[in-house]
Design a protein that fits this description.
The protein is an alpha+beta fold and 93 residues long. The chain has a single domain, classed as 3-Layer(aba) Sandwich (D-Maltodextrin-Binding Protein, domain 2). The chain has four helices and three strands; from the N terminus they run αβαββαα.
Length: 93
């Protein structure tokens, strides 16, 4: 995924905050990237962040809006139910 970010094939990536920091951001290739404010949600297993190019406020706003919409309209719950049934991996329930 990191090579996809640095090559431009991806504009952003979502993953565990610790993994993002230690695995990419502290490496030379991660120097031009930053993470969003940590997402601390009952819907996720841990604090999670999306890595985007530094200063890309438009993409950050778009991602925030999209993630919120997925939860608000039930799409996230539908996808989770389809792939994991009643096992809710991300809410701790």
């Amino acid at each position: 995924m990191y090579s996809d970010l640095t090559s431009g094939r991806l504009d952003a990536a979502i993953q565990d905050m610790l993994q993002a920091e230690l695995g990419f951001l502290k490496s030379p290739k991660g120097a031009d990237y930053e993470v969003s404010k940590p997402v601390d949600s009952e819907l996720l297993p841990s604090k999670t962040a999306i890595g985007i190019s530094k200063g890309n406020k438009d993409l950050k706003a778009l991602l925030d809006k999209g993630i919120k919409a997925l939860h608000d309209d039930g799409t996230y719950a539908t996808i989770q139910k389809k792939h994991f049934g009643d096992l809710n991996l991300y809410s701790g329930k």
